[in-house]
Amino acid sequence: MSIEVARNIGIVLALALVVWLVPGGGEGASVVQQVLSAVFIVMIVLIVGRLYMQFRGEIFSLGDLWRFALYAAIGVAIVTVAGSRRLFETAPGTLIWFALIAAASYTLYLVWQQYRSYA
């Protein structure tokens, strides 16, 4: 193990020890988690926006029906992931979660096949 790896492991362990021992450390960790989650979401939105701008011509060449299918699949996937916590609380919810994700994935596959057929 290199010195850099050992140093990084030590830093992570020290931070974990601070969160565990310091009063209110859990709330501080929660704040950091929420900030990192917000940054992650903003980065995803920026990347998706950039991809949309780059492939706008291809998206509009799909036609209205396939473009609607694309947007609907993306919307279903986003709403399903956003509601994951509630859906995973029950067994039927878990099955619904997997069914919705499978349906959205299959729809995206069909849209991709349609795009490839004209490429």
- SSE order: HHHHHH
Number of helices: 6
Q: Report the portion of residues in β strands.
A: under 5%
Q: What is the residue-mean pLDDT, rounded to a whole number?
A: 90
Largest sheet: none
Q: Using DSSP, what is the number of strands?
A: 0
Unreliable runs: none
End-to-end Cα distance, whole Å, is 49 Å
Number of domains: 2
Q: Which structural class should the secondary elements be placed in?
A: mainly alpha
Which descriptor suits the 3D outline? elongated
Helix content: over 70%
Radius of gyration: 21 Å
Fold and architecture overview:
- Helix content is 88%, strand content 0%.
- It is an all-alpha fold.
- It folds into 2 domains: 1-54; 55-119.
- It is elongated, with a radius of gyration of 21 Å.
- The protein starts with a helix and ends with a helix.
- The model has no long low-confidence stretch (mean pLDDT 90).
Key features of this structure:
6 helices, 119 residues
Report a brief summary of the structure.
The protein has 119 residues and is an all-alpha fold. It contains six helices and no strands.
